[in-house]
Automatic annotation (TrEMBL):
Keywords: Dioxygenase, Iron, Metal-binding, Oxidoreductase. Its cofactor is Fe(2+). It comes from the Bacteria. It catalyses: L-ectoine + 2-oxoglutarate + O2 = 5-hydroxyectoine + succinate + CO2. Involved in the biosynthesis of 5-hydroxyectoine, called compatible solute, which helps organisms to survive extreme osmotic stress by acting as a highly soluble organic osmolyte. Catalyzes the 2-oxoglutarate-dependent selective hydroxylation of L-ectoine to yield (4S,5S)-5-hydroxyectoine. This is Ectoine hydroxylase. One of its GO terms (molecular function) is 2-oxoglutarate-dependent dioxygenase activity. The lineage of its organism: Bacteria, Bacillati, Actinomycetota, Actinomycetes, Kitasatosporales. Homodimer.
Amino acid sequence: MTTAPERTADLYPTRGTEEVLIDRKDPVVWSAPGTPGPFTDEDLAAFERDGFRAVDELITPDEVSTYHAELERLINDPEMRADERSIVEPRSREIRSIFEVHKISEVFARLAADPRVVGRARQILGSDVYVHQSRINVKPGFGASGFYWHSDFETWHAEDGLPNMRTVSVSIALTRNYDTNGGLMIMPGSHRTFLGCAGATPKDNYKKSLQMQDAGTPSDEALTKLASAYGIRLFTGEAGSATWFDCNAMHGSGDNITPYPRSNVFIVFNSVENTAVEPFAAPVRRPEFIGARDFTPIG
Ligand SMILES: O=C(O)CCC(=O)C(=O)O
Ligand SMILES: [Fe+2]
């Protein structure tokens, strides 16, 4: 008797002919209440409800100086500029993002493995975790472009093959995030609805999408519906503050036309019980510096 090869069911179809809204099929907080860690039960309940949780001083001002100096070193390093993991602004040609900073830099590796960081990720995901992606988003002043509305999970599912919503991001501010310099906006509660996007994924989509998102972009109608239902929250905070957000939260950020850079480091943790399979809606996998295939637990 022959058996068909094992396939992971696709709980979240996307990139088809039509845009679809589907209820979330996965828990938001995967650990049992009372699981020890830096988050309190109240924090976890708020995360479950809103799809995010802000932490005022995740790292100290001294640590901010260290990490910010490392960011400056990386973006001013000519070798880094030539590296495929650096993404430049289409207009100014300044560095916009550097991927895989936890592999490039020992300093950022330490941050990704810090118990204040991994401990929270473990509490949310209810298991050991590994880094699916890390990046610094520099957002220099005077015209850095924003990130159009998206759900990270939509892309990670379609293009990187993450099966379930068991992934969480932390954005740690390394400069002050004002209400004017392109801070992160999230629709609270939007993490409960999956927006399957219309349109097939072109090959090598990632090259374009890292500068400007196209495939995987929600329609105006869907965004209007979600914003009317959930509202929009803007995150501000001192350097050292952090925002934890669910992989399916609808989020984005505007351009930064102020003189004040908005530089954050993002670390994405995935559960070791949700490792990547083949992409669900893309012809090829993205490179590993964007979607990791090394599932070694961190911390
Ligand atoms: O840096 C931002 O404002 C948002 C970035 C983001 O959503 C992402 O990197 O997926
Ligand atoms: Fe995102």
